[in-house]
Amino acid sequence: MKYDLVVIGGxxxxxxxxxxxxxxxxxxSIGIFQKEPYISYGGCxxxxxxxxxxxxxxxxxxxxxxxxxxKKGADVYTGFEAESIDFKNKTVKFLxxxxxxxxxxxxxxxxxxxIPDFSAKDEKGFFKLRNPDDATEIINYIESExxxxxxxxxxxxxxxxxxxxxxEKNINLTVIEAGNNVFGCSDGIINKILxxxxxxxxxxxxxxxxxxxxxxxxxxxxxxxxKESIETDxxxxxxxxxxxxxxxxxxxxxxxxxGAIIVNDFSETSVSDVYSGGDCATVKNIITGKNVxxxxxxxxxxxxxxxxxxxxxxxxxxxxxxxxxxTKYKNTEYGKTGLDIVQAQAEGFDAAEVYIKAGSKAGYYxxxxxxxxxxxxxxxxxxxxxxxxxxxxxQRLNAVTALIKMNGTVYDLENMDFAYAPPFSPVxxxxxxxxxxxxxxxxxx
Amino acid sequence: MKYDLVVIGGxxxxxxxxxxxxxxxxxxSIGIFQKEPYISYGGCxxxxxxxxxxxxxxxxxxxxxxxxxxKKGADVYTGFEAESIDFKNKTVKFLxxxxxxxxxxxxxxxxxxxIPDFSAKDEKGFFKLRNPDDATEIINYIESExxxxxxxxxxxxxxxxxxxxxxEKNINLTVIEAGNNVFGCSDGIINKILxxxxxxxxxxxxxxxxxxxxxxxxxxxxxxxxKESIETDxxxxxxxxxxxxxxxxxxxxxxxxxGAIIVNDFSETSVSDVYSGGDCATVKNIITGKNVxxxxxxxxxxxxxxxxxxxxxxxxxxxxxxxxxxTKYKNTEYGKTGLDIVQAQAEGFDAAEVYIKAGSKAGYYxxxxxxxxxxxxxxxxxxxxxxxxxxxxxQRLNAVTALIKMNGTVYDLENMDFAYAPPFSPVxxxxxxxxxxxxxxxxxx
Lengths: 445, 445
Description:
The structure is a homodimer. By secondary structure, chain A is an alpha/beta fold.
């Protein structure tokens, strides 16, 4: 086999790259090689399939291999897991014994959940949640075993989004987190609010608790922590992910310590004609200018698109990311863009922050709820980050995202003409109040 | 009487100016003179008092006169309607015969609804909706007269927000608009969608229909249009507002044709030591650099605050507005920032637009709804406006507002790192899709 462009991995970055490359150059022959039986799925939607807010695990799939081939003009091969790459002879070998020769190569093999070496890790009822099959297995197991309680190991996005949806199925939950933070939130005040909210919802949230092992006896699991042991019907591990790059042994391909493939703004790796992007690669943080590992679907899609355009000969830089994210546990949303104060100071910024509380709507309007916010800025006034929790935070977060991208300052934000009406915000929106406080603080310094 | 600062009008701009001036200079003596018995109210909340989404007309009042005096340090006089101003002798005369001498004067007399000279205009059951008393009268009339149907004259914000809330009280509605636009929307496609939505909700929406007169016979009103005549229980007029400045006869105070007092960035009028702001004054549009009349509570508050700071001796320019607004009819929101294509071309911009539809959430997530958007940009790529209708539009609108303020381009928007999760947006958010289409369009030009 032989293609102008070989893409290994067909979820977000891989399919985006293939589609963009083909759009830019109709004459390219493209082959996508994917280990799973499906491609092009939105893994971020999977936790919501448990409660039914997303109808089924299949519904997060964007295109079947056949549809993708037909609409986007790339050949799609499933059941092809890469075994090795020979950069010199430009070939990829697969575990099924097949081989393909490439003109250009896009490595988009994504990441896999880290599974600690627990005794029960291969037992039925011990799960990860990464692909549609995982979700189907979890849903079926809850049904067939009449699951009443579950332990989730890890209180990051996947862990807590899964918790929300299990809780909505009336399953009693223990969530165990080795660190002190939920959703990876390194802001002290916001983290505390989020933790309290999750606990008040009835979740047995155990932070700074380390899971030593998980056993299965009969149909129950026993989760052994450094403090206690917990009996449960089901275990889901969500302690982070690791780039799927171990199969690449050639040291000419430069990687991060965690295995992420280092790419430049054009998605080029250290090996010529080899590109990468998505959850197996680094991405540039716009604020620090540094390469980081930030595996999110939204980054994968955008970076993949730019990679595809560069592969097709259009020299176009991907601007990078700001670290923007949003998630929620039931009615409480958590979101962030840029750096929080801990990160800003660690990166050497002469930064300060203001903390502020305000309503999500006009105070007198029904459904008005509390928002908590941190605004992080340099003493010049330049905004470098914001952290929010509460309701309807995205309308605030996206505005600050745009400002950070444009090197906007607290002075720009202070009198910003945001659209106002009582069902949507107070007259003095939380962003405006935060900026006014920041201006006052700067003037005192 | 004598004050360092006399403020006439005590709703939004007046109270903001007084509070800001006092904060900046504790030694200022300040008197606020207000014609109504209350001050400091959020008129924008009043339509929602009809359905109970805002509990009562009183709940939109921020401070009683006494509270305001105590907390903000200004004397408050109610029942004081200005009769005339003598700029030479620096005195304001009131209809109640009193007089006050000012060091500096802030004119914040707001605006009043335009009431056409209909036969029934002084009858019970014929309403405007501007202040808490109006809302109370409407609510009481609906109750006491068991109102089953109503005619609203005017399909602007107030007219349609009132329609939403009357409809939720199961009152059959006819809304009559002389123009072709609802919510003042001058974008053809978005206006059509909004009109269809309102009609499909059961409102008898008559556009391009001119009301010639309204009579009352017995307990019913007869609304005579140029096309038909409509019998109804109640009439609400919402055809626009007019600055309350007719009482100022001295031509040294420069006004717009409609009576709005012309101010500069420091809220200074053409008469020295006289300031103005809010619904009785002009405000600068940032994009065109021109003074406009744009009477919204959010502008009044911000402009008033800056006015107060300037009055207290802090030279600080109000940056101006972008024309941002948001409103809704039930589940359908309409919002805008900057200029639409009609306005942009009228202002001489070499502008183009893209129209795009996309989901409010991930396609597979429950509650995903349609958003329609126009993005307006110069051929250089600079974004100068955006128009939206649908659900959850403010998270999109605020981001473009920030971009316009920062002279951002479609290239800045195209790969913007907006926070993503399935309950909040698709991976490719409507703003990103619009920007990508705009980039394509520019490259073809």
